[in-house]
Write a structure and sequence with these properties.
The complex is a heterodimer of chains A (111) and B (114). Chain A has no helices and eleven strands. By secondary structure, chain A is an all-beta fold. Chain B is globular and about 35 Å long. Classes of the chains: A mainly beta (111), B mainly beta (114).
């Protein structure tokens, strides 16, 4: 039972354009959401998070949007840079519970 | 401030053997979680330890076990290794005893079972 789903295994975006990575969840108890970025042979690196009391959180080029009614969140990267090429994982948790990860989306930013 | 340290980085074992992986969390972090990453499966949660007690457990067989020491360092053990156990094993530590804070990951241990 995949409670956190990233339905796009890969995404290719031109440098300078917007990258939009999507994530859907099924558990209505989730109230905290995170995005991680992972390069090969390294552990995931925390990018940005959002609490369910908000619908948007911004940090530099990265913005996360949360639509609770649709159980959907997205990560926007603007402008995209070649160094953003990595696998992106969304994760969710209910208060005090473990993080549940999606299967990841491989982003490739080309010149 | 040192990050999460996992040792060893790489391991090759044969079927039927057992293996122990080690994780040293960030100083001051009391929660340590373990994840298995395989291609196409994302990060699958194994278990979480907090103050030397297992607080959460994922859906893995009993061959997978762990423990946490008083200094918050954690070990994960896999017995009777199977080929399907080949994966990247990641450890993450976090600060909160309860509540929502991000987890910080180590670089992982790449286990290959032959």
């Amino acid at each position: 039972d995949q409670q956190v789903k990233q339905n796009s295994p890969s995404l290719s975006v031109q440098e300078g354009r917007i990258s939009i990575l999507n994530c859907d969840y099924t558990n209505s108890m989730f109230d905290y959401f995170l995005w991680y970025k992972k390069y090969p042979a390294e552990g995931p690196t925390f990018l940005i998070s959002i609490s369910s009391i908000k619908d948007k959180n911004e940090d530099g080029r990265f913005t996360v949007f949360l639509n609770k009614s649709a159980k959907h969140l997205s990560l926007h990267i603007v402008p995209s840079q070649p160094g953003d090429s990595a696998v992106y994982f969304c994760a969710a948790s209910a208060y005090s519970d473990k993080l549940i990860f999606g299967t990841g989306t491989r982003l490739q930013v080309f010149p | 401030k040192a990050g999460v340290t996992q040792t060893p980085r790489y391991l090759i074992k044969t079927r039927g053997q057992q293996v122990t992986l080690s994780c040293s969390p960030i100083s001051g972090h009391r929660s340590v979680s373990w994840y298995q990453q395989t291609p196409g499966q994302g990060l699958q949660f194994l278990f979480e330890y907090f103050s030397e007690t297992q607080r959460n457990k994922g859906n893995f067989p009993g061959r997978f076990s762990g423990r946490q020491f008083s200094n918050s360092r954690s070990e994960m053990n896999v017995s009777t290794l199977e080929l399907g156990d080949s994966a990247l094993y990641l450890c993450a530590s976090s600060r909160a005893d309860r509540g929502q804070t991000e987890a910080f990951f180590g670089q992982g241990t790449r286990l290959t079972v032959v």
